[in-house]
């Protein structure tokens, strides 16, 4: 299955929305389902005492359900039009986890070498391991939901009508905007979020499915907040295996926004983006793909 096949499948949808209307619909689906999900999480926390972070992450399942109901029942979009395939699901998702962990660890290592981050303690206990296993699933739900919304639905919807570069820009901008209310937001985190949006769209193009980028996203968040005790996009994550202390300027250490608030994260992502752009658009196969995508837009 190639990306051209995904777009052809997406064109079978009942509606193909314009570049400005599609994000509005996305925001509406996000706000309505997120409100319901957070209410569920709060009620469940009060009744059971389960940790609020875990419940909030699992509440993203309400958003995923809303997107799938909209695309399948209203738009009549096939699964392939969302980049969702059963074949090699675990292999693709595991590849994404490996890549995402590597990207995050690269950032942390560079920050440590530059003296912006220091390890203060290492924690290990059966309860922490059990919590981590639950969080692996919770981060996977949260991250796959964001990828389903921003790449599986919005990016592919735009690509049926517009050139690929415009679809990448709008979907990356949308991904940035939906995090606009997060704590600790400043210029560098905004650049980082937009860079990840571009990286995610290019990974969707490279691997021709939703699973690899969902795995990258999940591993990045999980390692950032549950292996290392960084905030994730400005959100506190609770106990982790490795506690760290931040030193120097926020633009290097990440400050209250976490690794994503560091210029190191932006640079590491730009290196990966550069490789993806070269692989997709400057090799002979990539040039053919770009020509086909633009000719169909």
SSE blueprint:
Blueprint: H1 3-10, H2 21-48, H3 52-58, H4 60-74, H5 89-113, E1 117-122, H6 126-159, H7 164-177, H8 187-207, H9 211-227, E2 242-246, H10 250-253, H11 263-282, H12 284-296
Antiparallel strand pairs: 1-2
Structural features, described:
With 297 residues, the protein is mainly alpha-helical. It is 69% helix and 4% strand. The protein is built from 12 helices and 2 strands. The protein has helices spanning 3-10, 21-48, 52-58, 60-74, 89-113, 126-159, 164-177, 187-207, 211-227, 250-253, 263-282, 284-296; strands at 117-122, 242-246. The protein has a two-stranded antiparallel ribbon. The protein is globular and about 55 Å long. The chain starts with a helix and ends with a helix. Belongs to the UPF0177 family. This is CPBP family intramembrane glutamic endopeptidase.
- Overall mean pLDDT: 93
Walk across the major sheet and give the strand order: 1-2
What fraction strand? under 5%
**Total of domains:** 1
Total number of helical segments? Answer: 12
According to DSSP, the number of beta strands is: 2
Could you say which structural class the secondary elements and strand pairing correspond to?
mainly alpha
Largest sheet: 2 strands, antiparallel
Sequence of secondary-structure elements? HHHHHEHHHHEHHH
The radius of gyration computed from the alpha-carbon positions, rounded to a whole number of angstroms, is 19 Å
Poorly predicted tracts of residues: none
**Ends: how far apart?**
19 Å
Domain CAAX prenyl protease 2/Lysostaphin resistance protein A-like: 132-223
EC number: 3.4.-.-
GO molecular function, one term: hydrolase activity
Keywords: Hydrolase, Membrane, Transmembrane, Transmembrane helix
């Amino acid at each position: 299955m190639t990306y051209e096949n995904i777009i052809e499948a997406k064109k079978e949808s009942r509606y193909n929305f314009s570049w400005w209307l599609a994000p509005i619909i996305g925001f509406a689906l996000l706000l309505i389902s997120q409100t319901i999900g957070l209410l569920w999480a709060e009620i469940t926390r009060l009744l059971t005492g389960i940790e609020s972070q875990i419940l909030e992450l699992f509440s993203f399942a309400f958003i995923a359900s809303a997107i799938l109901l909209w695309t399948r029942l209203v738009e009549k979009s096939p699964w392939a039009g969302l980049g969702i395939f059963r074949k090699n699901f675990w292999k693709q998702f595991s590849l994404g986890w490996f890549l995402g962990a590597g990207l995050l660890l690269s950032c942390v290592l560079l920050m440590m070498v530059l003296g912006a981050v220091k390890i203060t303690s290492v924690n290990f206990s059966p309860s922490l391991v059990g919590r981590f296993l639950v969080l692996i699933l919770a981060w996977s739900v949260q991250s796959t939901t964001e990828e389903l919304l921003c790449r599986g639905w919005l990016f592919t919807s735009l690509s049926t009508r517009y050139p690929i570069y415009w679809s990448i820009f709008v979907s990356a901008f949308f991904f940035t905007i939906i995090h606009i209310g997060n704590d600790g937001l400043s210029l560098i985190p905004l650049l980082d979020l937009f860079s990840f949006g571009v990286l995610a769209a290019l990974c969707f193009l490279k691997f021709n499915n939703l699973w690899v980028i969902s795995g990258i996203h999940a591993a990045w968040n999980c390692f950032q907040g549950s292996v290392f005790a960084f905030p994730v996009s400005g959100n506190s994550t609770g106990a982790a295996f490795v506690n760290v202390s931040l030193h120097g300027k926020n633009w290097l250490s990440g400050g209250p926004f976490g690794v994503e608030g560091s210029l190191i994260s932006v640079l590491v992502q730009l290196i990966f983006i550069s490789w993806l752009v070269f692989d997709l658009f400057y090799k002979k196969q990539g040039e053919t793909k770009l020509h086909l995508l633009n000719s169909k837009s």
